[in-house]
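Risk register update: the risk of archive-format incompatibility is retired. Evidence:
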Amino acid sequence: MLTRLRQLALHPRLLPPDYIEQLRAADDDDKTTHVALPITQDRKRHLQSLLAQLIEDNEECPICFSILTDPRITACAHPFCLAW
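Archived output:
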């Protein structure tokens, strides 16, 4: 059932025909507006401990749905596998 839902959500007819061009145009316009926020040492320690707990608990990657392999974590605490 989950596979079917993912297939429906990724169906090409859900996107406008010029979607790739729109993404490229938006990317060209936004290149100067994205600035990485500095991560404090306390935040870094918190993210490291959170990732360690996720690894210990054998959590699944929200992208590939398998156990985290070579895991990484974003500044907003979203874990994912590096391969993705």
